[in-house]
Amino acid sequence: MIKVKNAKFITSASRITQAPPPILSEVVFMGRSNVGKSTLINTILDSNLAKSSSTPGKTRLINFFETCWEDMQTNQNLTFNIIDLPGIGYAKVSKAEMEQWKKSLWEFITKRSNIKLFIHLIDSRHLGLEIDENLYNVLESFLRNDQNILRVFTKADKLKKNELAKLYQKNGVIMGNKEGEIRPQNGGKNTLRAHIFQAILHTQSPLQNLSQNNLQQSHLQNDSQKKLQDLHQDLPQNKPQIKSQKNSAQEELQNLLCSSLSLS
């Protein structure tokens, strides 16, 4: 079982230049407006850190949370950031503001080198929507070897039993407010935590593992952070094939965001 030992809000940012230094691995939560991102983050963190609003399009910032998790069986500890992104699918903003957010969001998800896992939230009551399919395809188009996408189906407690049975056939983790109605092998808080923990663990570099085990020793931590920053600068950002994929994906994502960016 995975335990969340502690979690805290770090900061909010409107663009990548305002984000915390890219030291820790990061898990990004993204999806349509009103899909339940904040609720899900609070559920897995056993907290009330992520703020939600009943007004779609109100939240306009990228929110960062630092968390420390422990595998109770192996005593392995991992410290990483969880990121709550603005949603897509609803917008009450000016054209100029939408254009700026298109650029800022694209830059963040493609250039933030320490993102290891994209959690794509999908409302289980509305499967197969074009906006969800487009978002998944865009993410997949620029995914690096050290990154993964995990589909999470939210609000499953609102489904009928036959609808829930069909959802079990989907590739993803199922979540709902009534976890007792969801098979543990298919979903629930503990299952989602395990998926996240393993995704981060398997993409950690040796230097990141070193820093995890010595967070209390500042001299080792600082040395690890410097080396990590050097490693990030060496990532193959400029290879022609990667650049071509990014250009294609950027055009598709910008078209998607232009029509449906939600700041929620």
In short, what is this structure?
The chain is of the alpha/beta class. The protein has one domain (1-205): Rossmann fold, CATH 3.40.50.
Number of helices: 8
Order of strands, main sheet, comes to 1-3-4-2-5-6-7
The CATH topology name reads: Rossmann fold
Q: How does the major sheet shape up?
A: 7 strands, mixed
Structural class by secondary-structure content: alpha/beta
Low-pLDDT residue spans: 215-221, 257-264
Number of strands: 7
Distance between the termini: 32 Å
Topology (SSEs and partners):
Layout: E1 2-13, E2 26-31, H1 37-45, E3 62-71, E4 77-84, H2 95-111, E5 115-123, H3 130-142, E6 148-154, H4 161-167, E7 173-174, H5 189-203, H6 206-213, H7 218-233, H8 240-260
Parallel strand pairs: 2-4, 2-5, 5-6, 6-7
Antiparallel strand pairs: 1-3, 3-4
Structure report:
The protein is of the alpha/beta class and 264 residues long. The chain is 40% helix and 20% strand. The protein has one domain: 3-Layer(aba) Sandwich (Rossmann fold), CATH 3.40.50.
Output the keywords.
single chain, 264 residues, alpha/beta, Rossmann fold, 8 helices
